[in-house]
Amino acid sequence: MIAHLVGRSLAPPPAATLRELLGVRAQSGSAWLFFHQGKHEPRALSFADADALSSRWARALHEAGVRGGDRVALLLPNGPDFIGAFFGAHELGATPVPLPWPVVTLGPLSLPKGADAVLSVAGPRVLVAPGPVEGVRVPVVSAPAVALAQRPKLTRSSAPAFVQFTSGSTGRPRGAVISQRSALVSAWAMADALGLTPKDVGVAWLPFFHDMGLVGVVLASLAAGFPVHVLPPGEFLLRPRRWLELLSEKRATITVAPNFAFELVLRRAAAAFASLDLSALRFALNGSEPVLRGTLDAFQKAGEAAGLKRGAVLPVYGLAENALGVTFQAESAPDADVTVDGRSVPSVGVPLAGMDVAVRRPDGAVALAGEEGEITVRGPAVMDGYLGDDEATARALRDGWLWTGDRGVVQHERLFITGREKDLIIKAGRKFHPADIEQQVASLVDAPPNGVAAFSVLREAQGGEELVVVVELRRQAEGDVAGRIRGHLSEALGVMADRVELVGAGELPRTTSGKLRRGECIARFGGRP
Asked: pLDDT value at position 17?
């Protein structure tokens, strides 16, 4: 048997574009998004409210010079204005480009690190932000206007819905261009796989600028027509118990988060389960980073005290270049794990409707079942390409297939993720190129050329990936160099190094041309406690 899984056919969604679907949902008069903030009453945004607000934002963007085909950068927190500006851009035939919003904002608003490079590639007509932004060369639009007197014709299904910049590199950041059709099909297929309806209730804290928050929360709930209660990401990180409390309070049926979030709850809020009721929760989807069997089992067991149904915690697989979802595990199958390098790897299920998945050898041939290779995906949710980067697009899209850079095997007619082809580092659900981290550290310390190596090591017992940074120093270190490195990375990139090792010049393995031998770096330094 070959390693090729084919999804069943997908019934057509009830609209051709996201903006058209919002108009359909607005006619129902149903509630949609509830934005919670501490102990304050949540800000409610019904589908009809979102429809009206998007028209007001369309007017503001139009007055700022935005026209069809333009791009609109969004520097906004989770809230009504993000929704309004996102769909308001669609109303004009423009393309939103979400930018990372900082977890904590202190003082004047400025662009997050790396966002200037993203803006350079995206070339937006305007930037939407809550107020003035330091160091921005494009006009800033900060508030909606009176609604358009005559709403324009809705955009085509082949037009871009948004550009998702995934991880930004020290060279040219890559933005996946997702069409209206791709975004809509992805959201519709995920809702279809789980049998979601307007009777479901969601709880989420994921940022909307991230594909998991945008497609997995906003667009999936739009597709199925159910309400979602939204926490600020910072509130969850500071008080993870609040996620559980809101799930219990709202009788939520679905939630989604990366593996680290489930681990964070287990470490800092496990005692909360005994006083809560999670019996209504049908799906707690775990994805966006390596899903660990130990985390799945520990969260499931801890949740039993709150009435969590067996099999509610489900591994899923997706990536921004496919809008989001690729495979879903619709029911728990703990006996279907495979063993890779001595660890138990859970299944991430079967392809969503309309999608094909094949594991391939380096020569492009489809592998046999049980044979490890690179995961490739084909279907209507695949991106159009990387914005302005034909070379990267040609590498990723070949003969109608998306080469994901992720490694896996097909066994028992299910997909298992075994690793990554690329050197990407995933921390807290975010992807980082090692070079980004290495450049930041090199700028801080007196390191020789290629004297910093950043990589991640999977630590099953710790419930995630450990970020290791090894630094060669030219001379004796003074003061807490490792502490300064950790603080700088946290401030500059929003990532925390788990381990910083300081070594002497020449200790990092290099090629004859002076480049780092990353695999040898991991072998030499990765196994240390």
From this structure: 95
For the record, the structure tokens of 187 come out as: 């959201």
For the four alpha carbons of 251, 287, 436 and 508, in that order, the dihedral sign comes to positive
116 is written with which tokens? 């200037």
51-77 pLDDT, tens digit each: 999 999 999 999 999 999 999 999 999
Q: How far apart (Å, rounded) are the C-alpha atoms in residues 334 and 332?
A: 6
Q: For residue 182, which phi and psi values (nearest 5 degrees)?
A: -60, -45
With a CB cutoff of 8 Å and minimum separation 6, the contacts of 519 are: none
Q: Using alpha carbons, select from 501, 494, 507, 529 the residue that is nearest to residue 445.
A: 501
The whole-angstrom distance between residue 478's C-alpha and the CA centroid of its chain comes to 38
Alpha-carbon Rg for the chain, nearest whole angstrom, is 23
Q: What domains are there in the chain, each with its CATH number?
A: 47-153 (3.40.50.980), 425-525 (3.30.300.30)
* Residue 81: burial class (beta carbons within 10 Å; 0-12, 13-18, 19+): buried
Name the residue with tokens 């026209």. Answer: 67
CA torsion, ordered 180, 184, 185, 186, to nearest 10 deg: 110
pTM to 2 decimals?
0.84
Closest CA to 451 of 470, 468, 466: 470
User: What DSSP assignment string belongs to 47-68?
Assistant: HHHHHHHHHHHHHHHHHTT--T
**pLDDT exceeds cutoff 70 at 168:** no
